[in-house]
Amino acid sequence: MPPGPEVPVQVWVDGQLFQAEQSLLVEHCGFFRGLFRSGMREARAAEVRLGALSAAGFGTALRVLRGERPALAAEDELLQAVECAAFLQAPVLARFLEHSVTSDNCSLLCDAAAAFGLRDVLHSAALFIRDGSHELVAQLELPEARAYVAALRPSTYVAVSTHTPAPGFLEDASRTMCFLDEEEDAWRTLAALPLEASTLLAGVATLGNKLYIVGGVCGASKEVVELGFCYDPEGGTWCEFPSPHQPRYDMALAGFEGRLYAIGGEFQRTPMSSVECYDPATGCWSFVADLPQPATGVPCAQARGRLFVCLWRPADITAVVEYVVQMDKWLPVAELCRSQSYGHFMVAHRDSLYVVRNGPSDDFLHCAIDCLNLVTGQWTSLPGQFVNSKGALFTSVVRGDTVYTVNRVSTLVYAIEDGTWRLLREKAGFPRPGSLQTFLLRLPPGTTGPVATALPEL
Asked: Does this model's pTM top 0.85?
């Protein structure tokens, strides 16, 4: 006979009764796992009393364990959630808090996580503070939280342009990654690319403060580079790792939840829908769920610990889909009907995705930006157009509450405020020709390098 429905456990917290599935509590909470598997009398009881927690905090914990994403705006809500995550030993709740860090709550979460020993939440909040303003540090109350933040390194804006493999006897000194020295307003050389590496139609992503390059091509026949390359800024060293099982180029590469995802792409001039996942711990690639359709060069972004891509469909439709690791599925999120042109990408900030496209119509000197609010599911268009001088496409990265955009002409830094981008300052443009890939890395203290000189366009 099939098993009957699970009898819920009654949990009393601060005078309030909750009902929850025992399997849910055991799977996600070390406290309940130890309780129900202990063999003690309490393990056989249908009722549990927790006197050390708040009812509101436990209610938040249950909602998160069941897959909800509650908005925790008030300070007491955040503190109660941190307390529950620590007491219940609930990694899912802790990860939810990690992805909830904003400039509004980072100092509070950093202090609370330090007090309750939630190291991952502490680390996430501290990194956000380290990349933000000095006012965020000043808001910290605990000395151990301030010390933790001070020991971290800020992230640096790094870029690499298009390069193909170079024969050793024709080594090209321009085949380098560069970082933005904001104090000196100059791009400096960080490291030379390996001779065999290609950034032409390659997937480029960071994971665990390392840079990964996968699937570049060389030659008119678009021969795929057979190896992947990983750069570790700690020692300034490169190492090789296997390429995906399916050779591919012009893919999206994303570092997400401790793994790399090679999404879509093309091989032998045929677009693909397949997706592969690379685990750096095992050094192995494996196939996961296919995209809903074949796609090349798909824009990709992460918001609130969720992975999203944009797909382009007939009749000028932009479709946003999300990959859910636990289900191994791509789920539809939203669609937008908008005339498209060349050069789409996407960035995320808090609960919003910003889809950037050249336009309107066939105007390649401007970029239009549409914003998708993930909570309401509503689209809005940002006011004004973002000028793209000389027709050069720009690329963009979000750090904290700022957006860094760069092309050959200038690096523009915007503040994200109430769903709009407000220009803060202008820095030097990237002095190399070719399409750009940009990302953030935390470089060792004292990292320097020669100023990257401008080169003529090919």
From this structure: yes
